[in-house]
């Protein structure tokens, strides 16, 4: 293992200061119909000055009732700044993008992410539960259920330009975490149709790969992602797409023809890969080919472990409600066997994503190798081999996302809160407690150190330099390091709780 951080683990007072910041941040990061103007604000899109903020209401909703309820809680001046529209059945006809209406309170990550994000919400929920924010936690889960019922799935986030994709499936983890506090069986029974609808979204085509029974990420939209064109620009005004093209042409990368035509520009294959990468949550990396553009050819470790966990969770929900859970247990068993068969590399001792076109594992070392440990899919021997490779990922401030520096934020030298929690819980599950404790302490120390410098908690960190100042190192996608920050808050509290339980 690498050396411990030179600075000491934070004092009780230092940790208390961060906890106080997190506690007050839930209010700052909360959105509801009462502050729908704050929710409608979108820093990711350009907007005509003085034009109203657009809010789209599901066709299943009574738009008139929604308007009346908003008029009751907003001033007339505030209401006049909104334009409420019914979401068209054919979403490809939407010319002007806007907020997707949600009837209750939810929590946004922070900064440019002023929406309810799919997988962020799980880690946010853990923080809310640690902070005894039970009412807000319940509402957050209810809004995700509402998205399934009214918009077809849990969305990347609640804007119209996200309607074509989801994010990593963590709903049932949230449901069971909340149920542990509420014990509300009636509610649990009522949301089973939505849970099963969401499971079907991930386990039917185009997400399903029929030959293996495993799933992939796939965005059903076409053309460039609107938020990338408007917002993901560097100091020279070049979009992420401009910079990717420069990279390809500068380095003479083979295969450019599939993604770029000199007369017509980027191909639909390029945009399909780029959009689908955004469903994965890992935007950007070179994990699924350069800039993740080959992602639709891959069966990812992370996604399929999450679907295994979802099958296990649904089985548990059925058992709680006295229903027959054997079908779900069988599905989980089958999936875990296929994951180990296709994704485990015995020689290297790591789990890798599987390319179903080439019938080969990727060999791209990525911290999602800890997901099978987190879910209990790995054997003790497999876990031993993964732990022997831990040094590849270990850095002074925690875990590297990958072992390669690419200029992408989901590669080295960057580390992200959710992946730290999954690794710590995975190692802990197999009783590698010293390693898990070491990682948790490194990351907590880093978060506290940077909080004391900047007075904020951020989205991601350079775990090599132990710094929140990352913008100059990120060459693709968006380079900002957003403040808030929802999932870092949640993971910080969860890791603290884990360390306290370890002591006792």
Automatic annotation (TrEMBL):
GO terms for molecular function: alpha,alpha-trehalase activity. GO terms for biological process: trehalose catabolic process. It comes from the Bacteria. Keywords: Glycosidase, Hydrolase. The keyword Metal-binding does not apply. Signal peptide: none annotated. It holds the Pfam family Trehalase. InterPro entries: 6-hairpin_glycosidase_sf, 6hp_glycosidase-like_sf, Glyco_hydro_37, Glyco_hydro_37_CS. Transmembrane segments: none annotated. This is Alpha,alpha-trehalase.
């Amino acid at each position: 293992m690498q050396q411990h951080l030179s600075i000491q683990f934070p004092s009780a007072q230092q940790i208390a200061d961060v906890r106080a910041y997190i506690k007050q941040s839930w209010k700052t990061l909360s959105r509801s119909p009462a502050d729908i103007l704050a929710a409608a604000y979108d820093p990711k899109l350009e907007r005509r000055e003085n034009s109203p903020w657009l809010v789209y209401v599901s066709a299943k909703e009574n738009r008139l009732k929604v308007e009346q309820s908003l008029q009751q809680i907003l001033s007339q001046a505030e209401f006049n700044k909104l334009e409420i529209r019914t979401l068209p059945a054919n979403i490809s006809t939407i010319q002007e993008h806007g907020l997707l209406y949600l009837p209750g309170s939810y929590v946004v990550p922070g900064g440019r992410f002023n929406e309810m994000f799919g997988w962020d919400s799980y880690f946010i929920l853990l923080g809310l539960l640690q902070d005894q924010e039970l009412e807000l936690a319940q509402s957050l889960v209810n809004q995700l259920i509402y998205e399934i019922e009214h918009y077809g799935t849990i969305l990347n986030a609640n804007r119209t330009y996200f309607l074509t994709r989801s994010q990593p499936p963590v709903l049932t983890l949230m449901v069971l975490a909340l149920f542990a506090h509420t014990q509300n069986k009636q509610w649990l029974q009522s949301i089973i149709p939505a849970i099963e609808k969401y499971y079907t979204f991930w386990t039917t085509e185009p997400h399903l790969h029929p030959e293996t029974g495993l799933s992939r990420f796939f965005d059903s939209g076409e053309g460039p992602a609107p938020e990338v064109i408007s917002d993901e620009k560097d100091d020279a005004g070049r979009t992420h797409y401009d910079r990717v093209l420069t990279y390809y042409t500068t380095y003479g990368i083979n295969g450019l023809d599939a993604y770029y035509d000199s007369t017509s520009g980027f191909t639909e294959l390029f945009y399909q890969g780029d959009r689908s990468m955004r469903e994965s949550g890992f935007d950007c990396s070179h994990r699924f080919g350069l800039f993740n553009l080959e992602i639709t050819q891959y069966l990812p470790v992370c996604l399929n472990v999450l679907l295994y966990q979802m099958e296990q969770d649904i089985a548990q929900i059925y058992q709680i409600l006295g229903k027959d859970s054997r079908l779900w247990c069988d599905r989980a068993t089958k999936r875990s066997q296929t994951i180990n068969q296709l994704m485990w590399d015995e020689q290297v001792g790591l789990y890798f994503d599987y390319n179903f076109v080439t019938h080969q594992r990727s060999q791209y070392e990525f911290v999602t190798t800890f997901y099978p440990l987190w879910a209990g899919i790995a054997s003790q021997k497999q876990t031993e081999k993964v732990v022997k490779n831990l040094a590849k990922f270990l850095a002074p401030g925690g875990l590297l996302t990958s072992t390669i520096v690419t200029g992408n934020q989901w590669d080295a030298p960057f580390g992200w809160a959710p992946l730290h929690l999954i690794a710590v819980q995975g190692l802990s599950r197999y009783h590698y407690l010293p390693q898990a404790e070491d990682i948790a302490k490194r990351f907590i120390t880093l978060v506290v150190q940077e909080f004391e410098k900047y007075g904020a908690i951020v989205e991601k960190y350079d775990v090599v330099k132990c710094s929140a100042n990352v913008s100059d190192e990120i060459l693709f996608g968006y380079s900002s390091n957003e403040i808030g920050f929802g999932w870092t808050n949640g993971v910080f509290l969860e890791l603290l709780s884990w360390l306290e339980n370890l002591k006792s």
